[in-house]
Design goal:
Layout: E1 2-6, H1 13-22, E2 26-30, H2 33-37, E3 41-44, H3 50-59, H4 63-71, E4 75-79, H5 81-84, E5 89-90, E6 95-96, E7 103-107, H6 108-113, E8 121-129, E9 140-146, E10 148-152, E11 158-164, E12 167-174, E13 182-185, H7 193-209
């Protein structure tokens, strides 16, 4: 199994790359379509700006190729911003996303203000999984740093929520129907201690078999 970590020209790419290497997975950085075609799992990481990442993809002429690969069962895992761009549009820069999954990305500020929570959402949050395959990580804490939340149109795409004060945010997704090959994490497993590393290992093995 070959895992490709996409070169987003943004931060955080090497932390997930080194975590995967530590776990013993065959991993490389990829940045063009020929590299993507050779991967069994494509990971899109990212900490940064939604609009800037989409502009990077357009400059490399990779928007349509990635969407095409997704429609042909390419296994894709987006992490943080990498998950957000899988959706249709974002309030960050009023930018269009890849539209692989249907939904929008909204600013947490309005939602959190109702509960007097300060944005961005930074810190360790308890996570509750809907998918039974990951119930052993139920109530575990994972590390978050984000200002926007994905709101999937299809609620069946939601894989977990995480508690923030008196409310919760969507913290992971898995496409339904013909898009079961698409996954996303809002939290950073590679920055979430031993539980995060173990979860990442189990998730990669799960993705490879499904």
């Amino acid at each position: 199994m070959h895992i490709g970590v996409f070169e987003t020209n943004l931060s955080n790419k090497f932390s997930i790359f080194h975590a995967l290497e530590h776990l013993g997975f065959n991993t490389s950085m990829v940045e063009d379509f020929k590299d993507i075609e050779k991967t069994d799992i494509l990971i899109i990481p990212g900490v940064g700006n939604f609009k800037h990442l989409m502009e990077n993809l357009r400059q490399k002429d990779l928007v349509n190729p990635i969407k095409e690969r997704a429609s042909k069962d390419q296994k894709i895992l987006g992490i943080c911003l990498g998950m957000q761009i899988l959706f249709s549009e974002s309030e960050e820069g009023n930018s269009k996303g890849l539209s692989i999954l249907d939904g929008k990305v909204i600013n947490l500020e309005k939602k959190f203000s109702n509960y007097k929570i300060i944005t961005p959402n930074i810190g360790w949050r308890k996570t509750n999984f809907i998918n039974d395959k990951f119930k052993k990580y139920e109530d575990n804490y994972f590390y978050f740093v984000h200002e926007y939340e994905v709101i999937p149109t299809n609620k069946n795409d939601i894989m977990s929520h995480s508690k923030v004060g008196n409310t919760s945010v969507v913290s992971s997704v898995n496409g339904s129907g013909s898009l079961k090959n698409i996954y996303g994490l809002q939290f950073h497993p590679e920055k979430s201690g031993l539980d995060g590393i173990n979860f990442l290992k189990d998730l990669i093995k799960f993705i490879s078999k499904n």
